[in-house]
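pinned: reference chain
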Amino acid sequence: MFFLLMIVYSPCAWPALALAADSEPMVSLPGGVPPQASQLLAAATPAPAGMPLRLRIYLNLSNPQAARQMIEDLQNPSSPNYHKWLKTGQFDQMFGPLQASYDAIASWLTSQGFSVTAVRHDRRDIEFTGTVAQADQAFQVQIMSMSDGKHYGILSDPMIPTRFQGVILGVMGLDNLGGVSPASTVSPVWTLGNSNSPNGTAYTAFAPADFYTFYDENALLKAGVNGSISGSPNECLAIVGLSDYLPAAVNAFDTQFNLPTPTITTEYATNNTDPGITHDENEGEALLDLEWGHAAAPGAPLILYVGDASVDGEQALLDALELAVSDSTCGTISISFQVCDFTGFGYAAWDIVAQAAAAQGQSVFVASGDFGDAGYHYDFSTGLCLVGPDPGVNEISADTYVTSVGGTQFYPSYAGINGVPLYGQVMGTDVGFGPEGVWDVLGSGASGGGESQEFTKPNYQVLSTPADGWRDVPDVALMAGALDANGTPNPGAFYGDDPQISGSYCPGPGACVACCEGGTSLATVLWAGISKLIQQQLGARLGNINPELYSLAQLESTAGLRDVTVNAVPNNNGFNGVAGWPARNGYDLATGWGTPDITTLVNLFGSSQVVLIGGLAASEYLQTAEAYNPVTQSFTSLGTVMSTNRVSYAAAKLPDGTFLLAGGDNGSSSLKTADIFNPVTDTYAATTHNMADADFDFAQAVSLDTGQVFIIGTGNAKLWTEIYDPPTQTFSTPVKILGSPYPEVGYTTTLLGSGKVLIQGYRCYGAIV
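pinned: its C-alpha cells
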C-alpha cells in the first residue's frame, strides 16, 4: 500500500539546495505583514535592537499538488485509495521537506547569528532565537514597536535567500499583533442548588439528556453506539486547548447528569510545558469542551492538547493542533477558538497541518465564530479577539480540510406540572425536537458565517454554495444560544465550573454546576462527539467529513440534517452593524446545511451505495440483492440471499446499522417472516420470532425514537400495524386501524415530531394519525 502511494504521489519536486556564498540574491516572501500593521504601527518606533525574539520557520511540502490530489483520492469512492488512511509519520515521509532543506536553512540561520533550538520534522519547522537587530538584517525588515513596549510588527514582507523560494513557507515571530480567544458565550445567572437568578426568576436549561432527546441520540445510546471504538481502545476525541483544567468541575458535571466517568489524558504542546490552570476564559473553554464532548460521545476517551498562550496565543493554538495531528492518536479533533489578525504565514502553516490530519483520516471541527459576519481584530488591552466593523470570518474554520460549525437558538418544551417547567428537573425533561433559528443575540453573539478571504472554494462546495470563488462557512450548525436579550435560556447549557475563574458564579470553595453557556464552541465539540458515533458505526476513521456531508445534504431531511430556515429578528446572523446572511432552504451562510438528527445521520453517513433487495422481475419473485454505486453508476450482484423470495415488504434501518425486512409476499402467499440484513457482511439472518399476522402486503416501516420499528401493511381489506423490538426480535400483537376510508396501496408514512405516525392514503384516499 505504502509503496504504491509512493509511486503515484512522488515527493521529488524540489531541486537539490546548493550551499550559498556569503552574499546571495534575496526574494520577498509574501504573507508576513499583519492585517492591522499599517494602522497600528503608524506611530511606532524601531524596536530595541537587543530585544530577544523567539522565531520559527515553517517549511513547505516537497510536492503540495501531489499531497492535495492524494487527499482528494482518499475521499473519492471510485479511487482505489478510498479511505486508505496514512499511518502516523507517512504524510511527512511522502510529502515533507527534504532533509537537505532543513540542513541548508539551519546552516543559513546560524550564519546570520541565530541560535537554532529545535528542528522538528513532524511539525515541519525550525525554531530559533535571536535579537531584533539580527532579524532586521537577516530578513531585511524593520521591526517596529508600539508605544506600550509590548507589541511589535513589520510593515513589509520579509526577504529570504532566493534558493529557499518555494521551500520556506513562512517566518513566524516577527510580530505579535494577532490573537486567539474562545468561541464561547458564558452568561452565569445561577447555580444548581439555587433556584433563583439575580432577578429572582427560576429557569430550566439544557442538560445532556435534553440534548439526547432534542437531537435524537437516545436510540443510538440504547444500542450501545456511544463513541467507543471496538478493537481500538486508544481511539479518542482530541480537544485543542490553551489551559489545564480543574478535574473537580468535570466530575461535578458528570455526577449531576449521571454520565460515566470519563477517561481524560492531558498532553502539553508548547515545549512540553504545562501552562497550568489559567483561571480565565481559556480554562472555561477546556471545561466546556471536555464536559459536552464527553456528553455527546460518552464512550470516547478524551485527550486535551494544551498550548501555552503566555508565550504566543496563535502559535500556542497551532502547537496544540500540530501535536494532536503528529500523534494521530485521536480520529477526531475539536477546536473551539477564533483567531484574529493572523498573517498569511499562519494560515499557510495551519493548512498543511489540516492536510496531514485529513490524510491520516482525522476529522477536524472548528467553531465558525461568535460574531456573525463581522471581522475579528486583536485588542491590545485585553489580548483577545474582539468584533470589528468590517466583514470577516474565523479563517481557521474556513480551511478546506476542516468542518466549520455555526450556531442555532431555540426555546425547548419541557415537561412539568400543569405545563409549568419545574426548576431542578434538569434530567431529560425536554419533550422533543422543535424549530431552530439562527443564533443571534444583540450584544452577545451570533453564528459566524460568510466568505473567506484566505481560502478558495473547494470542490465539494462548487455546486451548492454561492458562486463567490471563496470557501464559505459554516458547513453545519448546532445549539449555541445561552441567554436571549431578556435573560431567558435559548436553550442555555449547564456546565461544570471552577470558582476561581474570573466571573464564575460558583459560590465556592469547590466546583459547581452552573448555567448558562453557549457559543459556536459548544456546537463544535458536540459535532465532534457525533463524529465519534459515526466512526464507531462504520468501524473506521472518517477523515474530512465535508465531501460526504455535502453529498448527503442533497437528500435534505432524509439524510439526517434538519434545515434551519428561521432567521433571528432582526439581524439574521448580523452583528455589530455588519449585515448578516439570511437562513434559507438548503445551504446558507448562517447555519450551513443545518443541524443533525443524530440517529438518522449516524446510520446514513458513509452509505454511498444503495442496496436493492428482492422485488419482482417479470413474473419472478426475487430472493437476491444488488448494490448500486452512484459514483460509477453500476450495479453489483451480492452473493447472499434472503430466507425467502420477498416483494412489497417493509424495510427500516435499525440503530445498530442493520436493516429489518419484514412481511411482504413471495408470490404464493403473504409473509409473516422477517430478515435482518447486515450491510457490512452482506448477510441475512431470520428474526428469532415471526410477525404475528401475515396480512402485510404493500408494507411500510418507520423507525421510532425508541429504537423500535412501526410496521404497517394491508391485506384482506384490512390495515394492520405491529411494533418490532430489536433487542428481543419480537413483534407486538397486531392492531387493526379502524375507520373509513383508509389507504390500501401507495400510501406514505411519516414520523412526526410528537412521536406519532402520519399515514396518508393513495387508493381510497384518507389520512390517519
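why pinned: The first strand starts at residue 26 and ends at 28. The radius of gyration is 28 Å.
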